[in-house]
User: Fold this.
Amino acid sequence: MNLLLLAGTGEARELARALDRAGVPAVASLAGATRHPKPLAIPTRVGGFGDAQGFADYLRAEKISHVLDATHPFASRMSLRSAEVCAGMSVDYAQVLRPAWEPEAGDRWEMIAREDDAAEYIAEDATVFLATGRQTLEGFRNLEGRRLILRQIDPPTAPFPWEGGEFLIGRPPFSVEDEVSVFTRLGVDWLIVKNAGGVASRSKLDAARQLGLSVAMIARPAQPDARKFETVEAAMDWVRRHG
Ligand SMILES: NC(=O)c1ccc[n+]([C@@H]2O[C@H](COP(=O)([O-])OP(=O)(O)OC[C@H]3O[C@@H](n4cnc5c(N)ncnc54)[C@H](OP(=O)(O)O)[C@@H]3O)[C@@H](O)[C@H]2O)c1
Assistant:
């Protein structure tokens, strides 16, 4: 086995540690989206592959036999393309995909399909916290006029692209107490969240429930029709069976 771990999530970080411990020959790949990522436990390449052909060339050149895709549930371009390329090359592909979040009693969620659907629900004078990352900011342009706060890991390289918006720097994980305190300090009315799922980043939803805040929950994009594991443990079982 020679495994490629498509990384970019906490699960990928855990998998890198588990692969290292198990002595599985493996390399990780990061998109390079975060400027100073914490190092992973296995050798890591950084940067996109260019396109499907570039990805196929890489798999061939590195003699990759298995691809474990632990990218974020919203990194669907990468997942769809990787699954398709692997299928065409008879490389084993599996996705590590944590279950989506479901609302609990006391949650005030509006389920939306796209970024620009949020404006339909959010009043003009609301303060809105965007927990969605900088890549999709343009999708929220129709919220202009509201006070917007976008949290991101890296310091901004340019001013907020329109009036009424501001950046907040923060590197996860955040505890429920952290989130309660930041939402309270900023006077947040609405939270906009991608349905990423998982334990680590659900603290913002627990904080929103505690504070009675409304949440616009963006549904996940389509995922590849491929083998899926919900947990790191299940993915490692698959690796061990093939190793
Ligand atoms: N979307 C999110 O909300 C989110 C949140 C947390 C972390 N991330 C992580 O950030 C990365 C980029 O996410 P995205 O939303 O931009 O995904 P995307 O739209 O599916 O991918 C955009 C491009 O980034 C490159 N890429 C993505 N993951 C890569 C990886 N692991 N190794 C090498 N190249 C990769 C690919 O470039 P080429 O076409 O040049 O190969 C891909 O076409 C992913 O690894 C993802 O797990 C995303």
Residues 150 and 212 are 20 Å apart (CA to CA). The pocket of NAP is lined by residues 6-9, 29-31, 33, 48-51, 71-72, 74-78, 133, 135, 194 (CB under 6 Å).
